[in-house]
Amino acid sequence: MPLTVPVILGSVRSDRIGIRVARFLIARLEARGHVAPLVDPAALGLPLLDRMYKEYPAGTAPEPLERLAELYRGADAFLVVSAEYNHGVPPALSNTLDHFLEEYYWRPSAICCYSAGQFGGVRAAMPLRAMLAELGMPSIPSLLPIPRLQKVLDQDGTPTDAWIETATAKFLDELDWYAEALRGRRQSGTPY
Questions:
Q1: What does pTM read for this prediction?
Q2: For residue 49, how many other CB atoms are within 10 A of its CB?
Q3: Model confidence over 128-142: pLDDT tens digits?
């Protein structure tokens, strides 16, 4: 049975390279038969967090938040694509994530981090892992770090370095396992 796995991109920069990663991962998820919509903060244009989605009276939340809430409620897992800004989580990613809470509950997440340098964004992945757990979507044990992204994926997200396919297959196998396991548990009920 296909999974629904929103791919949440964390950068709004005009010259961002993370869109390559999102395109690549969406293609790999779709090749597995999954539904993988892109959640792009640049396209959403969300304001800085003033109110969470749940804090709006019913039917009064901005339209992008309503769309995301509906998507998230039907999701089986989340795949977060994060750059590393000053050794931390990009502000656009934090802002996008912070608008919701209950919509994430009981679903796993996975972190793909990247950088133009040698560390592959892992310094952002560590605080992001804690943040995702607090939001109710704990991350799977594995990360998919991509160092020197500009040498690994081209503009369209096509691999130019062979290791990325093998690493991604293992990473997505793990995400599939957790997503299927937790989907089964959600269907039989949650603690609250």
A1: 0.96
A2: 12
A3: 999 999 999 999 999
